[in-house]
Amino acid sequence: xxxxxxxxxxxxxxxxxxxxxxxxxxxxxxxxxxxxxxxxxxxxxxxxxxxxxxxxxxxxxxxxxxxxxxxxxxxxxxxxxxxxxxxxxxxxxxxxxxxxxxxxxxxxxxxxxxxxxxxxxxxxxxxxxxxxxxxxxxxxxxxxxxxxxxxxxxxxxxxxxxxxxxxxxxxxxxxxxxxxxxxxxxxxxxxxxxxxxxxxxxxxxxxxxxxxxxxxxxxxxxxxxxxxxxxxx
Length: 233
Prior knowledge:
7 strands
């Protein structure tokens, strides 16, 4: 019986220790739960803010797209008398084995087919060599390379209305029919296209130039003018 109070005290002490231990675990679990909730509450607003910004950006893009679609496309304005005619003459130069060659394309802008006029010696290289000393028979239609864009070195295109085009095209054909000979110094390719340009009322450079330089100078002397009106002459 003497040991009973001692045993009872030990039991009470053990119970008190157990209660303290359980309370600490409960507080630790509560603290972890509170910390987890706090972290969630910190991150949730950030995620919501990101989604809010993304939604705002999407709305801005949508409104700009809708605004662009609702606005009519700007219409080009034309000055009176500035419309290009449906016909053209294109003064061109290309590479060649020697100095090059100058010629013209002419036709209608809505058609792919073009006509070519130029002055070249007829025959082989011997005719070209002789043409530096005397007049040799000529050809006035398309020559090798005239239709190939990879050989092009210069171009100056001008536009005409139908009545003026008829006059210019008729003159080109007349010039072709009345140019039976070629000479490197006088009746050469640059002189040939110069006659056409002069008939159209354009200022022309002197004929003793390389074809590329001649076409570029022809364009520069006329300030790149693109519309020709023969009736204004």
